[in-house]
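Appendix B. Raw example, untouched.
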Amino acid sequence: MILRVANPIYDSVFKYLVEDLRIAKILISALLKKEVLEVEVRKHEYTNGTRDNISMFRIDFGAKVRESDGSQHLVLIELQKTWLETETLRFRQYLGAQYANPDNIGKEESHEFGIPMVTVYLLGHKVGDIKEPIIYAVHKAYDYYGNEVTEGIPDPFVESLVHDSIIVQIPRLHGRVNNRLEKVLSVFDQTHKDKGNRQMLNIDEDNYEDDTDMMYILRRLLAAASDAKLRQDMNVEDEYFTAIENRDTAIMNRDKKIAEQDQYIAEQSNQIAEHLKTLKSTIQGLANRGMSLDDIAVVMGKSVEEIKSIIG
């Protein structure tokens, strides 16, 4: 059966989705490819920064994960989502603030260390020519000769200074469901967008009937679709992005007109320069015949002052 659910590309719907800690746990577990035991929302959650050319939704989680060897530890998840192409500097600025946050410092016996951090970017746009929808940028340690160092790694000091990143290009999903993460992210796939209303996705629940976690996510999105406040919030987002698109279109048209004018002026300048070059050549030729400036002016139908101006 086809379900008409709210589109989680909208910040308001995404917030509603991940504020359910069970869903946050499902998403983070799929992203990390690890067992997540507990999830908590960190301070300053649901930060939505809007500027003239950007809307960036940010939410921070603390996730307790269990490694394959049975060990457990806390990981910070800095999740950032944006609709529009974004300056990487803004991501870096936010990340820098998180590194400086004393709440993200752990303690171990007699010293402090930064809690390991993973940054997740859910992008509503493509990144260059990278075709893969999901990219893991994972750091490693190497010696002087380029050999990977594994003994003693991971180490709290090293983990405090570097972090891994996961980049999701939502437009690259295109119905791909080859693994657990792509299955979870399939609810973001914009190929399911309703033709008459981009606030809604049409999703076939039969594809998830054997997966209780995914059915839980669909039910949450189904509830969001019938929530009057969320629908209003989506309308506000549409108005905001429509204004952005209109502004960008106006700027693009203005820049195009200016470029055309600049090209016309350049062409006119070249024509004038060529004309002056021809006049100078003609004057020089007449002067070489022994003609005076007065005679040249008469022949060319100009005043003596104009002839002097041409020859400089």
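End of appendix B.
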